[in-house]
Specification:
Layout: H1 16-25, H2 29-39, H3 44-63, H4 70-77, H5 83-94, H6 101-112, H7 127-144, H8 153-180, H9 188-194, H10 196-200, E1 203-209, H11 217-238, E2 248-251, H12 265-286, E3 290-292, H13 300-311, E4 322-327, H14 333-346, E5 351-356, H15 361-371, H16 382-397, E6 403-408, H17 412-425, E7 431-435, H18 440-443, E8 456-462, H19 465-479, H20 485-489, H21 496-499, H22 503-509, H23 540-551, E9 558-560, E10 575-579, E11 582-590, H24 595-613, H25 617-633, H26 635-646, H27 650-673, E12 682-686, H28 694-705, E13 709-713, H29 719-731, E14 739-741, H30 746-755, E15 759-766, H31 768-785, E16 791-795, E17 799-803, H32 809-821, E18 831-836, H33 838-853, H34 873-888
Parallel strand pairs: 1-2, 1-8, 2-3, 3-4, 4-5, 5-6, 6-7, 7-8, 9-11, 12-13, 12-15, 13-14, 15-16, 17-18
Antiparallel strand pairs: 10-11
Helix pairs in contact: 1-14, 2-16, 3-17, 5-6, 5-19, 6-8, 7-8, 11-12, 12-13, 14-16, 16-17, 16-22, 25-27, 25-29, 26-27, 26-29, 27-28, 32-33
């Protein structure tokens, strides 16, 4: 391989401030919160003033609760803890997307028919909630029961005459009422017009053109054009009033590029940065603020690269309207603020910083668990996030020379704390922010000369009902939870003391510990087994370390020979194994098993079968766990082998190791929990090249756990990684006789072993054709030997995905890309057939083709590669023949 092998595009010259950001990402919650408690500055006077002001604000809101906005009241009335709240969320996310009546009717029946809408009638003073509840009550009764009970017979008959169209109309209207509470307008002109009344009362706005991450180049261009048009409209409306007194705009970087991910850093900097600069130049021209929204935590460091380049661009010198959103629920937040302050000084400008709590908490938790990372990037307790917010707020108030703070919060205690600190410090150059349709009852006590006379800017989404869907669900999840301040504010059952609990005191009470019901990823399975360890391919420190460690193996050569529990000479000529992505790269050499070695291995396995079977189950389990630990210790070497021998991308190579480790621990757990004997004797395990470590280890670990001795025959293409894995198992203490490795041809060695009477069972993963051949051989043996011979086979198939119109097209396309093209489509579980409802077929196919164009095909040792090579020339020829056949069949190919 070349010297540039294993390129993760890691920035090896991270500044100390960027190193601090990367390090904070991996810090434990206890350490992070302890650090926060040491940073916070508080006094008895501050606590007293904060509590007094916060209590006054909450009491005023509750007194004026009849003026609560529809969404505030809705959040309280239909909390996500109720069946009705979940139904509302599901409907709002899906119903408006469905073009056909049949699917809509079935969805309504499923979600509304189970709701108890009647009990909500009259429970809320908001006309909006009652109107929605009435509509949903009628609908729910119609689809939930075939009798006349629950509604008066006349009402039931009257509504029944309208049939399903009336139901659809009623539910659709209710959902649209909900949606209209969240958007300032369906286009920027309408939003600007609708905002005038609030602007006259002292509010300012930051408009967000609704939409999710772009998946195609066309999507990115559409979003760019929308931002551009919005900037012109906002700029004309601003009429030169300046950044603080004018409306501004909020943009999502993921909307401006279809591959806004760390692995595509070089491409993103080359392609996204010019688009971002163009929009920022427009904002400079009109002298309005442009805020760059925060997104998922894995994109943070990439966003800082873009913001750094933008701030240091000479064409933007002197412009103080560049804004950055910082999420307080991330452990890195205080260090990001330090970095931004330094950037402002280096670029000789003032930056705007919008401090938010964060909107992707549930997704961040789940992603971290799935990826097996060392700790969560976000806090697991709400009080810890609130504490982090206060620490960050103090930092921002102390940095007003280079930062214009924008505090986005709906929490009365947080608001009062910041206001009190600012008063004590004599700081006036800052603003508050809130979401459109939420929290205005709180900020009506803040804005204007008759109140606290502080500026509040409203984050105002702009877009159609269709573009609202994903945003709406996120806000429902974020603010509809039981612990949400928005949810509790209007709930008279929640005491004001509880509502205004001091997060500093709460953090001390919890002793900085993480939430006990949210275990770390490694402890996801409790005391039963430890989760495999992942790796964060978005963290700069991790990537730098990975690049260094992988480079040790970029020119290594390995060898594989039969590993048998007896001395036996090997006369075979070594077979060179070439990297499927670079045929000039010889990864290693394999000495094939011959008939003589097979005989020796079979004899040894029979002689020692009872030795392993009589090892206590708990001891077998412990050995498997030690083997798992051994694989994790050598995971970088195994990853390098998976890339160079099997053509795996770096994330797939890590997945190989993790799955192998999980198999070992899982079967150890099973046999330790239920130590029954399932030993047959000698088991032959025949594994494939598409999962050369995961399935290889999965097969033999199950057999070993059950008390069988194993003859392992790996795929010819991937014997090197199998050899190294068996070496590690032996080093962990598993006897050589318990696992013997027999690399060689399936046609010869595999066939000889399957036919041998000493093999008492076969585990196979591979083609259906070979599985059928093995099955016939074993069937003949069972007749001849008058005994049962277990055969466990996993083969490929025509895997199908069926999609109806209720599905979110963007999610469908992402899942199709992963299932069909990950591992170069060489998984037995890979998607082969996609069936789409006709109403959405054109939309989804157009999006899918556009997303396919954005995939990077190339050398799997590069982090930027999405799709590596197929395994060998035979596989390539088979695929090419299929493509040629499809062309002759007049099929449309992409």
């Amino acid at each position: 391989m070349s010297l540039s092998a294993f390129q993760t595009d890691a920035d090896l010259t991270l500044t100390p401030l960027r190193q601090a950001i990367a390090a904070a990402h991996r810090r434990s919650e206890a350490d992070a919160v302890t650090w926060l408690l040491h940073q916070i500055t508080e006094s008895s006077e501050w606590r007293s003033h904060t509590q007094t002001l916060a209590r006054r604000l909450v009491e005023a809101v509750r007194t004026e609760r009849r003026r609560a906005s529809g969404v505030d009241a809705l959040m309280h009335e239909f909390s996500l803890s109720s069946q009705e709240g979940v139904a509302l969320m599901c409907l709002a996310e899906a119903l408006l997307r469905i073009p056909d009546r049949a699917t809509a009717d079935r969805l309504i029946a499923d979600k509304i028919g189970k709701g108890d809408w009647a009990r909500h009638l009259g429970e809320s003073p908001s006309l909006f909630v009652n109107a929605a509840a009435w509509g949903l009550l009628i609908t729910g009764k119609l689809v939930a029961t075939n009798s006349e009970q629950g509604l008066g017979a006349a009402l039931t008959r009257l509504i029944a005459k309208g049939g399903e169209p009336l139901i659809r109309k009623g539910v659709d209207l209710a959902m649209r009422m909900l949606g209209e509470q969240f958007v300032a307008g369906q286009n920027i002109a309408e939003a600007l017009a609708n905002s005038r009344t609030l602007a006259q009362r002292g509010y300012r706005h930051s408009y967000d053109m609704l939409g999710e991450a772009a998946l195609t180049a066309a999507d990115a261009q559409t979003y760019f054009a929308a931002y551009e048009a919005a900037l012109h409209a906002i700029g004309h409306a601003a009429a030169g009033r300046g950044i603080k007194d004018s409306p501004g705009i909020s943009i999502k970087l993921s909307a401006l590029h279809p591959r806004y991910v760390r692995a595509q850093r070089v491409r993103v900097l080359a392609e996204l940065l010019p688009r971002l600069k163009s929009l920022t130049l427009l904002a400079k021209r009109y002298d309005i603020g442009l805020n760059i929204d925060a997104e998922e935590s894995e994109r943070l460091e990439l966003s800082l690269d873009l913001i750094d380049a933008l701030a240091n661009d000479a064409d933007l010198a002197g412009f103080n309207g560049i804004g950055v959103v910082v999420q307080a629920y991330q452990k890195r937040a205080p260090f990001v603020i330090d970095y931004l302050a330094d950037l402002a000084r280096r670029s000789d400008r003032k930056l705007m910083v919008r401090l938010v709590k964060g909107a992707y908490w549930d997704a961040e938790i789940k992603r971290t668990q799935v990826e097996g990372l060392c700790d969560y990037p976000v806090y697991t307790r709400k009080a810890h996030t609130d504490l982090s917010y206060l620490v960050c707020a103090q930092k921002l108030l102390a940095l007003c020379d280079v930062i214009y703070p924008q505090f986005a919060t709906h929490n009365a205690h947080t608001l009062a704390a910041i206001y009190t600190w600012a008063e004590q410090l004599g700081v006036t150059d800052y603003e508050f922010q809130c979401l459109h349709g939420m929290g205005e009852t709180l900020y009506d006590q803040i804005v204007g000369n008759a109140h606290l006379n502080r500026l509040c800017r409203i984050y105002a989404p702009v877009g159609s009902h269709q573009t609202l869907l994903a945003y709406l669900v996120r806000r429902l999840l974020e603010n509809g939870a039981n612990s949400s301040f928005v949810n509790q504010l209007l709930d008279e059952k929640t005491s004001i003391d509880m509502l205004l609990a001091d997060p500093i005191a709460s953090a001390r009470k919890s002793k900085s510990a993480a939430h006990p019901r949210i275990p770390l990823p490694r402890d996801l399975f409790g005391n039963t087994r430890r989760n495999s360890t992942g790796m964060d391919f978005n963290n700069e420190q991790t990537l730098a370390e990975l690049t260094t460690r992988l480079s040790r193996f970029e020119k290594s050569t390995w060898q594989a020979i039969p590993l048998i529990a007896a001395n036996c000479s090997i006369a075979d000529t070594p077979l060179a194994i070439h990297n499927p992505a670079d045929h000039a790269d010889v990864v290693g050499y394999v000495l094939q098993t011959d008939a003589k070695i097979c005989e020796v291995a079979l004899t040894c396995s029979v002689e020692h079968a009872m030795d392993w079977q009589t090892v206590p189950a708990i001891e077998r389990a412990n050995l498997l766990c030690k083997a798992a630990d051994r694989l994790e210790e050598h995971r970088i070497e195994l990853m390098a082998l998976a890339v160079r021998e099997a053509g795996k991308t770096l994330p797939n190579a890590l997945g190989e190791v993790r799955e192998a480790v999980d198999f070992l621990r899982y079967y150890a757990q099973q046999i330790a929990r239920e130590p029954v004997s399932m030993a047959w004797g000698t088991m032959l395990c025949i594994s494939p090249w598409n999962f050369p470590l995961a399935i290889f280890i999965g097969q033999l670990s199950a057999a070993l756990a059950a008390g069988n001795v194993v003859l392992a025959k790996p795929a010819e293409q991937t014997s090197l990684i199998a050899y190294r894995a068996v070496q590690l198992l032996h080093e962990a203490g598993i006897p050589h006789y318990a696992v013997q490795l027999l690399p060689g041809s399936g046609e010869h060695i595999g066939a000889q072993l399957v036919a041998d009477a000493r093999v008492r069972g076969v585990v196979f993963t591979g083609s259906t054709e070979v599985a059928q051949h093995i099955n016939r051989t074993l069937a003949d043996r069972m007749v001849r030997e008058s005994c049962d011979i277990p055969f466990i086979a996993e083969t490929g198939g025509q895997n199908v995905m069926i999609v109806d119109s209720s599905a979110l097209p963007e999610q469908v396309v992402q899942d199709v890309l992963t299932s069909a093209f990950d591992s170069a489509g060489q998984r037995c579980s890979a998607l082969r057939i996609l069936l789409l409802q006709e109403d959405i077929a054109d939309t989804v196919l157009t999006m899918l083709q556009g997303a396919m164009r954005e995939l990077c095909i190339g050398d799997p040792s590069q982090l930027s590669t999405d799709i590596g090579p197929v395994i060998d020339e035979e596989a390539r020829k088979n695929l090419q023949q299929h493509i040629d056949h499809m062309r002759t069949s007049n099929q449309t190919l992409h």
